[in-house]
Amino acid sequence: MSSDVLVTIAHVRAAGLCVHGTRTWFARHGLDFRAFLREGVQANVLLATGDAMALRVVEVARRGHEEPR
Q: Are 12 and 22 in contact (CB under 8 A)?
């Protein structure tokens, strides 16, 4: 699986996480939350944090982009 998936706020919500907490998380990791809302962020940026929340959201995003079988 590639880490080149674009993660959006929809993936955050689908992972069961709140927007307010995500905003705080982005600030803690020095990431631009407003840019994320507008454009999304590449999965590898989130994975580089090593954070469990990031791993969870990326997994949701990846499942949303799997090829049909």
A: yes
In tens, the pLDDT along 1-19 reads 444 899 999 999 999 999 9
Query: Residue 69 has what pLDDT?
Result: 42
Chain-centre distance for alpha carbon 36:
9
Distance CA(41)–CA(57), nearest Å, equals 11
Query: What's the Rg (C-alpha) of the chain?
Result: 11
Regions of the chain with pLDDT less than 50: 1-3, 67-69
DSSP reduced 3-state for 64? helix
List the one residue out of 17, 64, 26, 27 whose CA is nearest residue 46: 26
In one letter, which amino acid is 17?
Answer: L
Contact between 60 and 15 (Cβ < 8 Å): yes
